[in-house]
Amino acid sequence: MICRIITGLMVLAWVAGVAFFFISKSTGNYTIDLLTSLIMTPLGLPWNLTPIFTGGSETTRMVIALGAPIINILIVWGLCRAVARKLCPQGC
Q1: C-alpha pair distances (Å), 78 with each of 12, 24, 29, 51
Q2: What pTM does this model have?
């Protein structure tokens, strides 16, 4: 149950960050852009740091910043399933 809540909150934060990103790009509002970076940066660490070391165009950096949280969401979901399977093999 707690794993579903944690994963759901991460997905909700990611969706909010992506929505704020597209809203800020369409309106040119840089205050919303700051809010987007405050949401997406912690969700995507350490994967969103790869453009610093590998370089790339701005489009590549933008795609990595928006997609990096998906990796962490999948890791948390997989770990939660593994721990739940180990602790409760009958499916409590």
Answers
A1: 18, 32, 36, 26
A2: 0.84
